[in-house]
């Protein structure tokens, strides 16, 4: 029967061990060594699941920089939410201001102009159209105002040229990024993205500033 090393608990095969047992234990050794090997990068990760205490070492340490980043919370890393950005189903994001949660895109589309109020309850959903209102005739609109058509079409429209809306509702184009002229207002349309709370986010923090 094989023995175990003191620190990493690696298997030390015995000459009397069966071949299949030795191969299995060597495979476990490789997995253990891979897990404890150092990870190097130029910045903290923005994808995958990470355990608390996982460390990313700075690939190019320099004076005034940090030795690396340590994860303080077991969870998933993801890029931060960005305004007017195209997202696909299954994309993960975290809020720009950490709230301890990660979110999955469950309806492909574009994010809005304003960051949505992300829910923290498990599996809760939010539509990425914060600040939007239903279009109104002859109303004065300003740049980055967001409207919905009076008849829902799954899209929102962002004002890119401020002015006064027309007396009649414009024909809302369904192609994302297409200009729509509404008297003196110009709109760009986008498909609405939707998010779902999807668990705890990892939280990497820098350590070891180099003087």
Q: Explain this structure to me?
A:
The chain has 211 residues and is mainly β. Among the domains are: 36 residues; 60 residues, no CATH class. The protein has 1 helix and 21 strands. The protein has a 5-stranded mixed beta sheet, with no helix packed on it. A hairpin with a 7-residue loop joins strand 9 and strand 10. The radius of gyration is 26 Å and the shape is elongated. The model has no long low-confidence stretch (mean pLDDT 94).
Question: Count of DSSP E strands?
Answer: 21
> Percent of residues in helical segments?
under 10%
Overall radius of gyration: 26 Å
Structural class: mainly beta
N-to-C series of helices and strands: EEHEEEEEEEEEEEEEEEEEEE
* Largest sheet: spatial strand order: 13-15-16-19-18
* Stretches with pLDDT under 50, minimum 5 residues: none
User: What fraction of residues sit in β-strands?
Assistant: 35-45%
- Kindly report the average pLDDT value: 94
N- to C-terminal distance: 51 Å
What's the overall geometry? elongated
Separate helix tally: 1
Largest sheet: 5 strands, mixed
């Amino acid at each position: 029967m094989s023995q175990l090393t003191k620190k990493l608990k690696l298997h030390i095969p015995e000459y009397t061990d069966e071949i299949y047992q030795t191969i299995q234990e060597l495979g476990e050794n490789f997995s253990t060594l891979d897990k404890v090997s150092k990870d190097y990068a130029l910045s903290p990760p923005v994808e995958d699941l990470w355990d608390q205490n996982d460390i990313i070492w700075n690939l190019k340490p320099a004076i005034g920089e940090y030795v690396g980043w340590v994860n303080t919370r077991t969870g998933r890393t993801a890029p931060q939410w960005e305004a007017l950005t195209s997202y696909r189903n299954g994309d993960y994001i975290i809020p720009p201001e950490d709230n301890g949660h990660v979110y999955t895109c469950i309806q492909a589309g574009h994010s809005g102009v304003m960051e949505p109020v992300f829910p923290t309850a498990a599996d809760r959903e939010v539509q990425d159209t914060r600040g939007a209102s239903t279009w109104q005739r002859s109303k004065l609109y300003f740049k980055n105002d967001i409207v919905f058509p009076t008849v829902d079409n799954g899209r929102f429209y962002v004002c890119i040229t401020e002015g006064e809306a027309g007396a009649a509702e414009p024909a809302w184009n369904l192609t994302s990024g297409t200009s729509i002229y509404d008297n003196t207002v110009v709109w760009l349309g986008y498909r609405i993205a939707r998010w779902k709370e999807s668990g705890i986010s990892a939280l990497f923090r820098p350590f070891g500033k180099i003087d």
